[in-house]
Write a structure and sequence with these properties.
This protein has about 210 residues and is mainly β. It contains 3 helices and 14 strands. About 25% of the residues are buried.
């Protein structure tokens, strides 16, 4: 069994029986690469199934791998643009099993947000945002940050730098959560509840890439 996670993009250009797996910066699962290019498979989600043809492509500037699917096939499987799914490929049966994924995890470096007007906000770099599966259209809306019993709704700000892997909080917000800047934290985002959970922190390596200021 080969497993991988991708985002869904609905494309008007695809035929009803085609899907395209696009490997991006975060990388398409090496396991999913074992699916032969042009292979005829059966796409399954619970009791729904359809015969498909799979193609592989490489993306140059996309941070997270994705799957392109035509409108008719997306409607059949109840898939929406920007949705994150898990794929399981079974070579023995020729089946590609699809499961909607609610929670995504990644690690991000926490920095202090010192600019005015950022009180009550969380700034999440675009690369980290993509790995967590937070849709770009969520900019300006509220997400809930949690750590243990602490919880707070914060306005989401997305900086312009597409390579930014950090997240930023004001010193006051960090104090309320008992956080220290310049540490890397494990983050989990639930797309259904719009909740970002902070798990254990890891010590920062001595040499750290500098992040462009915006």
């Amino acid at each position: 069994m080969a497993t991988g996670v991708v985002d869904v993009y609905v494309s008007e250009d695809l035929k009803d029986n085609q899907i395209v797996l696009v490997a991006c910066g975060a990388g398409l699962s090496s396991e999913l690469r074992t699916i032969p290019n042009g292979a005829g498979l059966t796409l399954k989600k619970a009791a729904i199934e359809s015969k498909i043809v799979v193609r592989h492509e490489s993306g140059s500037e996309c941070p997270f791998s994705y799957m392109e699917i035509g409108p008719a096939l997306a409607k059949t499987f109840g898939l929406k643009n920007g949705q994150r799914v898990s794929l399981d490929f079974s070579p023995g049966t020729g089946a590609l099993l699809l499961y909607p994924q609610t929670v995504s995890s990644s690690s991000g470096l926490l920095l202090s947000e010192l600019r005015k007007g950022r009180e009550g906000a969380i700034v999440i770099g675009y690369a980290l945002l993509s790995w967590l599966g937070i849709p770009e259209k969520a900019a300006g809306t509220a997400i809930t940050l949690t750590r243990g019993a602490a919880s707070k709704k914060l306005r989401l700000i997305i900086p312009a730098n597409e390579l930014d892997e950090t997240f930023r909080l004001t010193p006051a917000t960090m104090r309320s959560f008992g956080l220290a800047p310049r540490r890397k934290w494990r983050l989990s985002y639930n797309r259904t509840t719009r909740t970002l959970h902070l798990a254990a922190a890891a010590d920062l390596p001595k040499r750290v890439k500098k992040v462009k200021k915006i």
